[in-house]
Specification:
By secondary structure, the protein is α+β, with helices and mostly antiparallel strands. It contains 14 helices and 16 strands.
Length: 379
């Protein structure tokens, strides 16, 4: 399966290079220079990109294109994490190459990109291409613009049953199933998560077969969710350190000054891990403060932290999906991730994370009335 994914990803990039290359003016050249590149930043960590392309003008001026590929059609609700990762990768590449050359271009490649997705990408200044022929490549230096109209309707139908809980859209559904009190309908859950009813049904059908979710009849409302079993099932396909992109930092004065600055933070964030769990189920003094943020580099600088490869006591994480920083819980002016997200992050976390997860799980079992949410009907 992994090999097939790599082959398909390679084909997506190769087809894009060919399609754009055929539309370039005479004397221009587009080529793939790196695959699966790990881009080091001056902050001491690496950002993974699926490919780096090089576009070269007849006069020899060239620019790099940082590419992220998605093997399934990309929905607008997941674009914020894609945009943040591409922007951070382009920034890191510019730092690596020096500031005298052209600014690297960000590009998303997918089998299909809807009109709204393409509109959002254009507004964010991100180039794109899909397998139906939708192309938009905008490079300032050397100056070139390529645009082509492909399909406006998704030719790809997801007919295969869901087999894992990997992915941002799936995570949104799983989080909602854990967070909200039953009963509720598929369409209500779809409206709440921003996912399609079909996507919700695929997740629910998978979990129903595992006896985690119970419905009133084949097409009825969801009447029961074993959230403890669901947490364990989700953890099979998720691991905090590998599902997210982490950066490490040092706050030499400890947690208190960091929390003071977080109370004044103007960026979106959510504390997770040991510190978030400890406020509900005290276990031991947290050694590491883990923070979700859309842009870890900017967040670290805003919080006046020092980059640190060793001896770090703060980890700022680019989340697997924006759901990690949504529906936060605020306490004393500080934003914490939902308790269900904190539980998952600790279950497969390093060190004493699993033991802290057990303590938090016990608190959650005894305090459902404090953390379970009511789902407002909006079918």
């Amino acid at each position: 399966m992994m090999r097939n994914s790599v082959i398909y990803e390679t084909k997506l990039v190769d087809d894009t290079v060919k399609d754009i290359g055929e539309r370039l003016p005479p004397g221009w050249n587009l080529r793939s220079s790196e695959r699966g590149a790990a881009v080091p930043s001056s902050q001491g960590f690496k950002l993974q990109v699926d490919a780096i392309l090089e576009i070269r003008a007849p006069d020899g001026i060239s620019s790099e294109i940082m590419v992220e590929t998605k093997l399934k059609p990309v929905q607008p609700n997941v674009l914020s994490s894609v945009e943040s990762h591409l922007e951070a990768s382009a920034r890191a590449r510019r730092e690596q190459n020096g500031t005298t050359g052209p600014e690297p271009v960000s590009m998303l490649i997918s089998p299909y990109l809807s009109p709204l997705t393409r509109k959002r990408l254009t507004e964010a200044g991100i180039s794109y291409a899909d397998s139906t022929g939708n192309i938009r490549l905008s490079v300032e230096r050397p100056a070139v613009f390529v645009h082509n109209q492909g399909a406006d309707k998704n030719p790809i139908r997801e007919k295969r049953p869901l087999r894992s809980l990997k992915g941002g859209r799936t995570a949104r559904v799983v989080r909602a199933l854990m967070d909200y009190r039953t009963p509720f309908g598929t369409r209500e859950l779809a409206a709440e998560t921003g996912c399609s009813p079909a996507m919700v049904s695929r997740v629910v059908n998978l979990l129903e077969s595992d006896d985690i979710v119970g419905k009133q009849g084949r097409r009825g409302r969801i009447v029961s969710v074993d959230w403890q079993m669901l947490a364990n099932r989700w953890a099979e396909d998720y691991e905090f350190s590998t599902s997210n992109v982490s950066t490490t930092w040092l706050e030499p004065r400890g947690t208190a000054p960091l929390l003071t600055r977080l109370r004044r933070a103007e960026f979106r964030y959510a504390i997770t891990g040991s510190l978030a769990a400890n406020r509900l189920a005290p276990f031991a003094e947290p050694r590491l403060v883990s923070i979700y943020a859309d842009d870890p580099l900017a967040a670290g600088r805003s919080l006046d932290l020092r980059p640190a490869e060793t001896g770090a006591n703060v980890s700022i994480v680019h989340p697997f999906d924006a759901v990690a920083v949504e529906s936060v819980e605020r306490a004393d002016g500080v934003a914490y991730a939902r308790v269900t997200q904190v539980l998952l992050d600790l279950m497969k976390g390093p060190g004493r994370g699993p033991a802290e997860a057990e303590a938090l799980l016990e608190w959650m079992k005894n305090n459902e009335d404090r953390w379970k949410l009511e789902l407002t009907k909006r079918a």
